[in-house]
Design brief:
heterodimer, A: Butyryl-Coa Dehydrogenase, subunit A, domain 1, 3 domains, seven-stranded mixed β-sheet, 11 helices, B: 385 residues, alpha+beta, 12 helices
Chain lengths: 382, 385
């Protein structure tokens, strides 16, 4: 056993963290997440920030080196995700979406598809989003029917990150096979094929992420199918695991940031002549936030390690990590707001983080679905 | 980073579990119901080598690393060994034996450790007092030097194995003006004039462990009973408390793993409204809560063990987090296990009832949850992470 990252791994993450904290990047991030930024401003900032992430290799962390990525195992990628989520939750969501498409493309794309899109995705000059589930279920997002010119894709998907400004979607759909049966398939849908109607949502948090709903209605060329030879259900399961780990890391990054800001606030604010922190009602809340975040970190790392080593229990532990970390972010948000009293109800960066944190329990797989899946795993094992 | 156990650790954990299910767990229900220590179960633990697993072989131990010792404790809990016996093991092996191992001179180690490792002698540690619980530095027991002897006076409280122990590590003030550095540790043997145990306390949980006061009334001990140097007692006590926040938590985690397994089986067997209650989402959510707790808690405990095996001083922040999490969230998890069992979870016939009572001690013993929050917040404030 070894519970620590190597000094080399830690140093690389610290360098990334420092770059994120640089004045120019931080101010762009602040503007991206701002309450009232115009859509076109957000679109421009997203692209500038994604190019910055691309330059630092963030967008291909888990993409194999042979495909131009960093080839990191999920375990080694976790602190990178935590760092970005703590610095800029909205940018994390945008980058996570694009990275997922790069990840899928690297594993299931044809040489032509990779040549066309992968380099841009890794560089952050092509923005992409996965469209993997319908709004009310975990079913595939759409239906694909063979057409004389290729495929006709229809359906509705939500939530989709950066819905109105991506260059490329990967859509999961039930495709009609040789007979009448429907088989799960993946399709690359580029913006120039007019994929359908994008509806950007007004959201309480992650304001820079451009969450929304996509009504699919596209005529796709025959070579749009991504998964010629791949076992799509297995690929999607693996993708869900990777994404759950990333969003668990998101939850931890946001939660850690809330701990730090609460600590600063409680030390600076004086009540009745002494620091707020001197009151156990406040300091104990920070202790709880820290303890839960640290515990979530262990759970997440262990789950990632099991995922990387192909351990049969990984599916369950990844679910446990996502569930625990998501709920930890929500709990930290609640406590952080409470520590700030009425100031916790003001629109400010901490309040914004609290709203961003909420998405951790919803992203990829909701806490409710995770509980059911974990229970099913437990019941199968007895 | 690597979370793999060695092949030896995996095999040993499995063998301890299999053996304990057959040889020790069967004593649990009766010992708990009667609130009596099981000498037969104790003897078996000694025969299997579990009472001094991490002691060097020259002192009767098995040379195991800390992680292996903790895996064994977890396996015993999972096998269904009751929390009382596990607490007795913890107080004996870690709080008493390990304190002697780490701080004793050669003569003390040779005299006590082989007897403790076999279980021939039972050990305990006397730190807590009626007015000094979590605030261990405020003890009032005194040790006054008298020539080549010390005279000990005072009362210790809530001492696990107190009425049974042949040997006790006792903390007392030798220099009141020196604050923390005025506390010293002594090894006191049963039968020493003036040294006695009070009435055995009847407890909510961990009932089979024998807990009592220890009374020191002009107890005369030779200078050779001093453990470590005079004035080192507080540091020695801190070292002992490390175990309260690691090894002593492992059986709780193991017992909650068993509670999870038992609850899942029960949920599959128990039918209401024409179907197993496992099909109800409310029951599934409770199983998930238990599962997440067990997965998280064991990692926190393993991390401390790993750190100790690296020869590092205790990371008090990590230890406090482990103690807080296993204590507070463990009680919630145990409560969910009882809830899944419904009325059957509230009667003695089902082990989850005992686990629920035993788990409560995790929030109290070895520093309450409130003290752990104090430690965490203080260390955060001071930037000690």
């Amino acid at each position: 056993m070894n519970f620590e990252y190597s000094s080399e791994e830690s140093a690389r993450v610290e360098a990334f963290r420092s770059a994120l904290a640089g004045d120019e990047i931080a101010s762009k991030g602040e503007a991206l997440q701002g309450e009232d930024a115009a859509p076109e401003v957000r679109n421009r900032l997203r692209r500038e920030l994604m190019a910055f992430l691309g330059e630092r290799g963030y967008l291909g962390l888990e993409v194999p080196k042979a495909e131009g990525g960093q080839g990191l195992p999920a375990l080694a990628a976790l602190p990178w995700h935590e760092a970005l989520a703590g610095a800029d939750p909205s940018l994390f969501a945008v980058a996570e979406a694009s990275s997922t498409v790069a990840w899928l493309l690297a594993r299931a794309g044809s040489p032509e598809q990779k040549a066309r899109f992968l380099q841009g995705l890794l560089a952050g000059t092509t923005l992409a989003s996965p469209v993997l589930s319908s709004p009310l279920a975990r079913d595939p997002a759409g239906v694909a029917l063979p057409a004389p010119s290729g495929w006709t894709l229809s359906g509705v998907a939500a939530p989709v990150v950066n819905v109105a400004d991506v260059d490329l979607y990967v859509v999961s759909a039930l495709a009609r096979g040789d007979g009448d049966e429907r088989v799960p398939a993946l399709f690359l849908v580029s913006r120039d094929t007019q994929p359908g109607e994008a509806e950007a949502w007004q959201t309480p948090g992650l304001k820079g992420a451009g969450l929304g709903r996509l009504g699919l209605g596209a005529a796709l060329p025959p070579d749009a199918r991504l998964d010629g030879s791949a076992d799509v259900p297995a690929l999607l399961r693996r993708t869900t695991e990777v994404r759950c780990l990333r969003w668990a890391a998101f939850a931890l990054g946001v939660s850690r940031e809330l701990v730090e800001r609460s600590l600063t606030y409680a030390n600076e604010v004086q009540v009745d002549g002494r620091a707020l922190f001197k009151n156990q009602e406040y300091s104990f809340k920070i202790a709880e936030m820290y303890a839960l975040t640290d515990t979530g970190e262990q759970l997440c790392r262990h789950a990632a390690w099991q995922h990387d080593t192909g351990d049969a229990r990984a599916a369950t532990t990844v679910r446990a990590a996502k569930l625990f970390c998501g709920e930890t972010a929500s709990r930290s948000a609640h406590l952080a707001a409470q520590i700030r009293g009425a100031h916790g109800y003001r629109i400010d960066p901490v309040q914004r983080l609290c709203r961003d944190a909420r998405f951790a329990e919803l992203a990829v797989v909701s806490s409710e679905v995770l509980r059911g899946e974990i229970a099913a795993d437990v019941l199968k094992g007895v | 980073m690597d979370f793999a156990f060695t092949e030896e650790q995996r095999i040993f954990r499995r063998s301890v579990y299999d053996w304990a299910v057959k040889n020790v767990a069967p004593y649990a229900d009766e010992a708990d119901a009667r609130g009596e220590f099981s000498f037969e179960a104790w003897k078996r633990l000694g025969e299997f080598g579990l009472l001094g697993l991490h002691y060097p072989s020259e002192y009767g131990g098995q040379d195991a690393d800390v992680l292996t010792a903790i895996l064994a404790s977890e396996a015993l809990g999972e096998a269904g060994v009751d929390g009382g016996l596990m607490l007795a093991l913890g107080a004996h092996t870690f709080l008493c034996g390990d304190t002697i191992l780490k701080n004793g001179n050669e003569e003390q180690k040779r005299r006590y450790l082989p007897r403790l490792a076999t279980g021939e002698w039972i050990g305990c540690m006397g730190l807590t007092e009626p007015n000094a619980g979590s605030d261990a530095a405020s003890i009032a027991t005194t040790a006054v030097r008298k020539g080549e002897h010390f005279v000990l006076n005072g009362t210790k409280m809530f001492i696990t194995n107190g009425p049974l122990a042949q040997v006790a590590v006792i903390f007392a003030i030798t220099d009141k003006s020196a604050g923390h550095f005025g506390i010293s540790a002594f090894v006191v043997e049963a039968g020493t004039p003036g040294f006695s145990a009070g009435k055995k306390l009847d407890k909510l949980g961990v009932r089979s462990s024998a807990t009592s006061e220890l009374i020191l009334d002009d107890v005369l001990v030779p200078e050779s009973a001093l453990l470590g140097q005079e004035g080192e007692g507080f540091l020695i006590a801190l070292g002992a408390l490390e175990w309260d926040r690691s090894a002593l938590l492992a059986p709780l985690v193991g017992s909650l793993q068993k509670a999870l397994t038992d609850s899942a089986r029960y949920a599959l067997d128990r039918r209401q409204f024409g179907r197993p209650i496992a099909e109800f989402q409310a029951v599934q959510a409770k199983l998930a809560t238990l599962k997440v707790f067990v997965e998280a808690a064991r990692l926190l405990v393993y991390r401390i063990a790993w750190s100790k095996d690296q020869g590092r001083p205790l990371n008090h922040l990590e230890a406090a987090i482990a103690k807080l999490f296993v204590g507070d969230w463990g009680v919630q998890a145990a409560s969910e296990a009882v809830q899944i069992h419904g009325g059957y979870g509230y009667i003695h016939d089902f082990p989850v009832e005992r686990v629920f009572r035993d788990t409560k001690l995790g929030q109290i013993g070895g520093g309450t949850s409130e003290v752990q929050r104090m430690i965490i917040s203080r260390m955060l404030k001071e930037g000690l992470r």
